[in-house]
Amino acid sequence: MLRILVTRLGWMVLTFWVVYTLTFMLMHAVPGGPFDSERRVSEEIKRNLEAKYNLDKPWIEQYLLMLEGIVLRGDFGPSIRLSDYSVNEVIAQGFPVSAALGIFAMVFALSLGLSAGVLSAMFRGSLLDLSFRVLATLGIAVPNFVLASVAVILFSFVLQWFPSAGWGSLKQIVLPALCLGAPFAGYIARLTRTGMLEVLGQDYIRTAYAKGLSTRQVVLKHALRGAMLPVVSYLGPATAAILTGSLVLEKIFALPGMGSHFVEAALQRDYPMAMGMVMVYTGLLFVMNTLVDISYGIIDPRVDME
Amino acid sequence: MSNRIRKSYPLFLLLMIVMGLGYAVNLGQLEPAEFTFNNGAEIKTVDPALATGAPEGRIINGLFEGLLRNLPSTDKAEANGTVPMRPATQGMAESYSVSEDGTVYTFHIRQNVLWSNGDPFTAHDMEWSWMRMLHPETASEYVYQLYYVKGADRYNKGELNTGDRVEIELANRANAQQLFPRGTIRRGVFSKIGYWNPDTKIITDTAPESGISWTKVFFVDVFPEKNGQVRWDATPRAMAYVMHNASKGNLPEMIEGRPVETCHHVLVDFKSSVGILAIDDQTFRVQLKSRTTYFPDLVAFYPLYPVHRPTIEKYGSPGWTKPGNLVCNGPFLLQFRRIRDRLRMIKNARYWNAKQVELNSIDALSVQSETTSLNMYVNGQIDWSTTVPNMVIPDLRKRDDFKSAPMLTTYFYRFNVNRKPLDQVRVRRALNMAIDKKKIVEQVTKAGNVPARSFVPPGIDNYNSARGDIFDVSKARQLLAEAGFPGGRNFPAIRILFNTSDMHKDIAQVIQQDWKEHLGVNVQLENYEWRTFLATLSQKDYEVARSGWIGDYPDPNTFLDMFVTDGANNQTNWSNARYDELIEQAKFEPDYQKRLGLLTEAEQILMDEQPIIPIYFYVSKNLVQPHILGFSSNVQDVHPLHILKIDNQQFSTRDQ
CA–CA separation, B219 vs B396, rounded Å? Predict the structure, then answer.
């Protein structure tokens, strides 16, 4: 177990370096710079600006300077576009927002998806099963910005339960989390249903029933664990998708999360910020995937961690 | 894997969820502000010298105050719904006088005005703030607004001539990363620049060709100082200065018999060369290069607002802008900021005119989506939306709370006049005459925009805009035929470039269709992402490109001086000697009306030669809740927050 973690760590460092290098090259290869604007500044002023952010130095020097800051001080430097803040401060403020949104969306997706999947499998072919399956398909097929618009009209304008946008209270998280979680709830419901149907036909389930256990006990204690496996392996990519999938929703619901920073940094050629965002996402994805791999071993005794 | 870990796994998940919930519940503590508006975007900074853009302006106008204040000049709106804004002595200065030749402005600072920490506000704060803005290391983008001041551009650009009095900042800053407090300043007379070659140890007067490393050396005769005064009559000490970060190779201790010291900057001496001076605590004098009738407008424009020196010297930049650190002199204080969420301002009790300020707290949201902003307005979450989606404007125009008025902003197309056949005036004019601009404003933008016949928008007092060609298909065809392309035959392939946006695309399509239908000219449309678009434009790799321009101050010069030969914002390769001459003449013309006449003449040349096609003038698109009083439209779309009031009666009836 420990050895796996150490190897993983090694790979992570390597991944970080490759991602850093690629990002750096791509950033500087894209035409346009952070100081281009419709109102062009004179060459002297532009030189002053570039000197301030080390952009007047040769590429290789910029590459090393930035790398040095990140590795030695964990500092991505000042944001060019949000010039009152350092990139680290922006991440420190944006990350909890995205994380809270992601956790809520995930909880919603898991609880709804799992229960719908189990019920569907148990009452296979019934009207309940059919309606759950239709809902799941809808959840997957409808893009989240469409879902968001419908949700705003319904819950915010017609029913007036939730505010239409903004950040600052529990009420304001509900709509975006629902919209963000919906497609994942759909997938999880499908995966659970399939897994459940497969498991329910197995010998050990029959044995459990034969022992005289109630349906509830059989389903929750024995079947669900087996049925969960595909869901767990889906959680890694799902977490990644939830984190990156919130970009559009953050805009619609005006949430100050990482997604909007990411997009804006790229559009505004805010090099340090873009680098910071890419690195955070890289780290996040790596950690999530590792966690999923570990959980896999925990849930399924057949998986050997070595 | 032991069973215990396996069992605790769901608990771990549960813990994560509880933590998330806890965080979210914790959020719900925020009381709404008295007045909430959507600022449209997260601001770049609250530092006046570094900010550009309208959202920054709204905040800085709340936190800071300049010598003068732009305020509505009357109570009554003009025919087009605007109330003209004028720089009024409602700021830090209680009065000002202008010398007869129009070049010396003397501002008299109000007695007993305070910074938000209780420090008195003096003319020295102004002098230091403008010096900071001009300092090259501050890297202010709007610094050219101060270039009208004598010597200011030379200080900013670091230009030196032999015999100049200079100031040298030695490389002994307490914190090298921080511009202020500065290191020791030495003053002297500049003699020349030399180039030191560390390999051959030879110094030359001209820069060696590339490939050879060299270090720039400033030769200065330094004069001694006594009690903070430079003794320009004493015997100077011959010194050589090199930049602190430029020393390549080992520098010698002496160059040409001069001791070598490292420094941060060698700039013209601010005190004796730049026309900015605090005569005493209450008197601030500015010496301009030449008469600039709109200088009061610049003074009332937020980049020239003062900043608090001790705060900046203590925390550095950007540390001084943090809530808690920030010391300001405007009607409001900065309470907190949440990036891309909101910025909260509360009333500043120390503001000189605090009794006139009615709002106690203001939230500025940074919602980017226009639709979201509209939703929040309709829901009552915000009191003012600074923009709305174009497609709902036809409906909104019937409402009283939608305030739309002409703006000092022009939507136009640039021609690259170096590309054939756009080098021919006839072709450019034909292309302009073939565009039905009325159709564009009525069927595409639908916002009540005015089709443009000139480049300078209407709304500048006493200025008569030039008159360009109008929509005239037969004349356009004739001109194109004369140019050698009858019916569009043999017309080379050209492209219209625009930055990705539905509206720009729709407009480009109408123009594409007009040109095809009326002239038989085929053009391709190309859309680029914003920064790529800007880069392509500045490399002049285009034939026709979409553009827009917002006037900085209510004077035609803010539009017309862009098209002087090789102007940074010209970008069309167009050049006309007579035009350049008129713009230059207008700068020095003392008579206001005559000056405007010169500018009209220049604009007429621009319209006759047509390196650009003005398409329409923008209108502002503000939605303001009916219970907000004191909001008036103006051509700059600037709305001071401190004069807004809440009609409580109307507000409470709305809630019932």
Answer: 66
